[in-house]
């Protein structure tokens, strides 16, 4: 049991003991959708203002988030190869080809290589490798690139796979607004759940998150298919599959959060060597999709998902009890409230 007097150091030590993850690499998120919790400047658990019923998500960070050294530098560069054949030529024996430089961007926050395991601490063990990467016979692998946990993870996951950029949410939210207004026959009130103008104002707010509507519009905007894998159901839904698009990208959904999927030339390869755009219909792409399914299956078996249809939430603004993501989304649309806790 945690007491208000329990020190932050004791909390981290207990989590380290339970998960096997060093305290320096433990990242804690709270609420729904999950938001990173800063432990800096807090001496004990009472100072963190936890409330009864708060949902805590614990995950391993890819670089130390406290003490023991500085975080490794990261860059916005990603998916530098314009053709999938370039990746196919890479191997651990021959080494990767030089990546073409990308324009410098603002550096992102340190990113964890493993997705958050909502509800379970066991998912943070070292045995989680299979949920982070799936190797293929030639030495390349499908890897899970974790996107920052906020209300914009869908947009930033798509931005990473399409352009190699982690922080595209403001631009892509505007793309959704323009897409909805430009096609009133497709995106009417019956589909959106509210008047198109109201929906546009809602999705343009950075506190709100996207879903199938946004993936459909972004597929059309980029003229690429988006293969969205769901860890809970192990389904793969391909947006834009009815169009004659020549490339495909992959994202991963755990019930609360979207991450990006990429192909790396070898395990542990840096992100600037990722390939995220795959040619549609080739044998190689089918091999990649099969590897992605293995990764999804491993994540499912590790229960790295949240059943958003059945969990119970309480609105932190008005106190209303809600069941499942559907009711939470409807409540958020109706009230503008976006602070939920599980109970």
UniProtKB/TrEMBL annotation:
Gene Ontology MF term list: cysteine-type deubiquitinase activity
Subcellular location(s) of the protein: Cytoplasm
Domain annotation OTU: ranges: 142-264
Transmembrane segments: none
Role, per record: Hydrolase that can remove conjugated ubiquitin from proteins and may therefore play an important regulatory role at the level of protein turnover by preventing degradation.
Source organism of this protein record: Prototheca wickerhamii
GO cellular component: cytosol; nucleus
Catalytic activity: Thiol-dependent hydrolysis of ester, thioester, amide, peptide and isopeptide bonds formed by the C-terminal Gly of ubiquitin (a 76-residue protein attached to proteins as an intracellular targeting signal)
E.C. no: 3.4.19.12
Chain intervals with Low complexity compositional bias: 71-82
Region of interest called Disordered, as start-end residue ranges on this chain: 64-117
BP-aspect Gene Ontology terms: endoplasmic reticulum unfolded protein response; ERAD pathway; protein deubiquitination
Enzyme class: hydrolase
Keyword tags: Cytoplasm, Hydrolase, Metal-binding, Protease, Thiol protease, Ubl conjugation pathway, Zinc, Zinc-finger
Matching Pfam families: OTU, OTU1_UBXL, zf-C2H2_OTU1_C
CDD domains, sorted: OTU_plant_OTU1_2-like (cd22793)
Protein name: Ubiquitin thioesterase OTU
